[in-house]
Specification:
globular; four-stranded antiparallel β-sheet; Alpha-Beta Plaits; alpha+beta; 5 helices; about 180 residues
Length: about 180
């Protein structure tokens, strides 16, 4: 990870994975959802971007953002969101991991892993593949059998918009799933 090079493209669409410290399962609850929603709203007041899709898993978040045409700095946005989330999460009594000497020295809290994973979406097919992957993630991890059963996902918004059928990604016969979009 030391040789990680970020690709900052103004106006680009990105897929992100952001993970909790030591993969602690703190996220899949209403308090965390409210804290994340507020942190994103707070960030967007000064650093706008579009949240195209998002799913909160117990120990990580997947999201797709589209940045404004004149700005490609997603790292600054994640810094603002993680800081705001952490402050409110801890204020509401949320848990954090034990603080190491290094964390204390650099004034870091034990809520988020320091880094995150980003992927610049290259074309419409890449975007759609990541969009589907994100929404199917709760089924992939065995948390639900049907994508629609996971409440911490933008899937429900996209069903209302006609992008997905309500039964998209449902596990059939315990081993496979059927993908149907509204356009098919």
């Amino acid at each position: 990870m030391a040789d990680c090079r970020r690709c900052y493209v103004p106006g680009g669409s990105y897929f992100f994975t952001v993970v909790t410290e030591r993969r602690e399962g703190i996220l899949a609850n209403d308090t965390a959802r409210d804290c994340l929603r507020e942190a994103i709203r707070h960030c967007r007041l000064t650093l706008p971007f579009a949240v195209d899709a998002l799913v909160m898993m117990p120990d990580h978040i997947h999201t797709i953002w589209t940045l404004p045409p004149d700005d490609g700095d997603f790292s600054k946005r994640w810094g603002v969101i993680k800081k705001h989330f952490t402050q409110h999460w801890l204020m509401l009594g949320g848990a954090e991991q034990n603080l190491s000497a290094s964390r204390l020295r650099y004034r870091r809290r034990g809520v988020w892993q320091r880094r995150f994973w980003d992927h610049l979406l290259r074309d419409e097919r890449d975007y759609q593949n990541h969009f589907d992957y994100l929404h199917f993630n709760p089924v992939k991890h065995g948390l639900v059998k049907n994508v629609a059963d996971w409440p911490y996902s933008s899937f429900h918004h996209w069903v209302e918009q006609g992008v997905y059928m309500a039964n998209w990604g449902a596990v059939m016969d315990g081993s496979s799933f059927k993908i149907e979009t509204a356009g098919e």
